[in-house]
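Title: Comparing notes on inverse folding

I've been comparing how different people in this forum approach sequence design from structure. To keep things fair, I'm posting one structure and asking everyone to reply with a full sequence. Here's the target:
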């Protein structure tokens, strides 16, 4: 079976799109937190929880796509590895 760069199944495509959206939302949330001291008031923490939803959905769609749809696209594996790496780094660098 050939490995492609772009995903072929709907789950694979959804995983890549959700991973990109989750990373973008997390970057926006971090920028808002960094600018929180300069703005008119504190940044609501529910924005951080909302930015984590696409990340969890992307990981779940990637795993399901790999198992059920036999997805072998490089972007799906790369997206899942990046999400796991960011999660682990976030938990190690910023413990709560």
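Reply #1:
Here's my take.
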């Amino acid at each position: 079976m050939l490995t492609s760069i772009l995903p072929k199944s709907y789950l694979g495509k959804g995983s890549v799109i959700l991973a990109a959206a989750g990373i973008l939302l997390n970057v926006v949330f971090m920028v808002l937190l960094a600018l929180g001291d300069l703005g008119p008031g504190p940044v609501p923490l529910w924005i951080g929880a909302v930015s984590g939803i696409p990340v969890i959905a992307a990981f779940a769609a990637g795993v399901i796509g790999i198992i059920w749809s036999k997805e072998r696209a490089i972007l799906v594996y790369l997206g899942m590895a990046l999400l796991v790496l960011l999660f682990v780094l976030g938990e190690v660098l910023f413990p709560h």
